[in-house]
Amino acid sequence: MDCKMADKGHICLQLGLMIYCSLLKECINITYVSGTSGAEDILFFRSGENVSLPCNNALSGCTSTTWNYNRGSNTIELVGVGKLNNIDRRERLSVGSDCSLNIMNATKEDYGSYSCRQYVNEQQQENDARVYLTVLNVSSSLSQTEMRAGRSVTLKCKLEYYGVSCDTLFRTEGYQLVWVNQAERNLATDSRYKIFSSSPCMISLTTTLLNEDHNKEWRCQLTQNNQLKTSASFTVKYSASNATTTVKPAQGK
After folding, report:
1. CA–CA separation, 90 vs 67, rounded Å?
2. Chain-wide mean pLDDT for the chain?
3. Exposure of 171 by Cβ count < 10 A (0-12 exposed, 13-18 middle, 19+ buried)?
4. How far apart are CA 186 and CA 192, in angstroms?
5. Position 195 pLDDT exceeds 80
6. What is the DSSP string of the chain?
7. Pick from 112, 131, 111: which is nearest to 56 by CA?
8. Of 72-76, 119-123, 138-142, minimum mean pLDDT range
9. Strand pairing category for 3-4 and 11-12
10. Are strands 227-235 and 217-224 parallel, antiparallel or unpaired?
C-alpha cells in the first residue's frame, strides 16, 4: 500500500504496525513507515505518557548520535554527539542504550518532527531516521469551576500533528476518531450527544450535563481499520456547590 509523506516528498513503501514500550513499561502504538531515504515512524501518544523515539540508524555506543527537533521554521538540537544539550525540557529527556530519545511525561507541546542523525569525524554517516510524534488532545469549553448540571459543554478531540499528512492518515490509511462512553459504546448512536467533525483530525462532542454525569468519563479513540491505536479521555467533575441542580435526562436512542 503506497502513500506520499509530506517530508521531502518521500514515497512510502510499506505501512505496518509495531508496539513500542515506554519507560514505565506502558505500551503505546507506533505505525512504522519505511521510506526511500531512511526509516520514518509515526508515533501517537496522549499527554502524560512516557514515550521512546527509536533511532533506526543507530551506531554502537551512541556517541555519534544527534537528535534534532522541528515544528515550524526552527530546528532545535536536543542531543549532540550523544549528550543532552542545555534546553528547557532537558530534565524530561534521556538517551537510551539503543540511542533512542526518551521523553518523560510527554505533553501536547512535545509533538512535532524528530530526527536521529549519526556523525563520525564530523561527517554525516547515513540519512536521518525521522519520527513524527503526534498527540491526541482533548479540551473542554467549560473550566472545572464552571462544570454543573444544566450547563452545555463541548469537548474537542484533536490530533496535533506536524510533518505527516492528515489526509494520508485518515482518508488513505483508514484512521478514524470516535467518541465512546465507559462501556465502549459509540456516542454517535445516542441522540443526547451531538457529534461534529470539521476535519478528519478533529471531532467534537456537545451535550447538556446531567446530575449523574459527575465522575463520568467520555473517551476519544483513534482507531485504524477498527483497531484501537490510542485514546484520550475527559472525566466530568462537579464541586460540592455545583452538584445540586436537578436536570432530567433527554430521551436517547
Report:
1. 13
2. 81
3. exposed
4. 12
5. yes
6. --EE-SGGGPEE-EEEEEEEE-TTS-EEEEEEEEEBTEEEEEEEEETT--EEE--TT--TTSTTEEEEEESSS-EEEEEETTEE-S-TTGGGEEE-TTSPEEESS--GGG-EEEEEEEEETTEE-S--EEEEEEEEEEEESS-GGG--TT-EEEEEEEEE-SSS-HHIIIIIS-EEEEEE-TT--BGGG-TTSEEEEEETTEEEEEEE--GGGTT-EEEEEEEETTEEEEEEEEE----GGGS----PPPPP-
7. 131
8. 119-123
9. antiparallel
10. antiparallel
Q: Which domains does the chain have, with CATH numbers?
A: 3-135 (2.60.40.10), 136-242 (2.60.40.10)
Q: How many whole angstroms from its chain centre is CA 104?
A: 14
C-alpha cell at 82: 550523544
Q: Tell me the one-letter amino acid at 161.
A: Y
Instruction: Report the percentage of the chain scoring pLDDT > 70.
Output: 79
On the 0-12 / 13-18 / 19+ scale of CB atoms within 10 A, 97 is: exposed
CA–CA distance from 87 to each of 23, 91, 117, 223 (Å)? 21, 9, 18, 34
Using the structure block, give the residue that is written with the C-alpha cell 511525561.
Answer: 105
Cell 483497531 sits at which residue? Answer: 227
* Nearest one of 163, 177, 45 to 107, comparing CA atoms: 45
Distance between CA atoms of 116 and 55, rounded to whole angstroms?
6
Residue 182 has pLDDT above 70, yes or no: yes
